[in-house]
Amino acid sequence: MNKHQMDIIMKLITRQYNAEQMAKALKMAKALKMVKNFKRLSRFNISKKERLDELAALGDKPCPDLVDKIWGNTKWTETHCDECRKIGADVVEFDNDIDVDSIPFHLCKNCLGKALKL
Ligand SMILES: [Zn+2]
User: CA-based Rg of the chain, rounded to a whole angstrom?
Assistant: First the structure.
């Protein structure tokens, strides 16, 4: 067994980060001409081409508030804590680098602080 098999990756996730990931995913989907089949996009059940074009026009570093406004909800940019269920706070994502099907775990800074006191 490879000793790196279960390395955990920690990453700070903000609404801005999510908005930029959305921009990257859109760019890739457009380049591949596969918006309908693209995994990350299909998660959000995208069907309206006009809204996608508007989102793409925001560029590589879109403002999360604009993304929400164009899309009509916060699904693209939303962050959530898996411990306290708070929505919209910056969170740290814990994931492993091997299993593509793994579900990442998210903790807000408040819950991380509580964990330190255990
Ligand atoms: Zn929390």
Answer: 16
Q: Please check whether residue 16 lies inside any domain of the structure.
A: yes
Closest alpha carbon to 21 in 32, 9, 34, 12: 12
Distance 88 CA to ligand 1 centre (A): 10
Residue 3 lies in a domain: no
Number of domains the chain contains? 1
Report CA(89)–ligand 1 centroid distance (Å). Answer: 8
Domain of residue 61 covers 8-116
Establish if 2 belongs to a structural domain.
no
Burial class (CB in 10 A: 0-12, 13-18, 19+), 9: exposed
Measured in Å, residue 105 CA sits from the centre of ligand 1 at 11
Averaged over successive runs of 10 residues, the pLDDT of the chain (118 residues) comes to: 68 96 86 56 57 89 95 92 96 85 91 96
Task: Please tell me the predicted confidence (pLDDT) of residue 45.
Answer: 52
**91 CA → ligand 1 middle, Å:** 8
- The model carries a pTM of 0.75
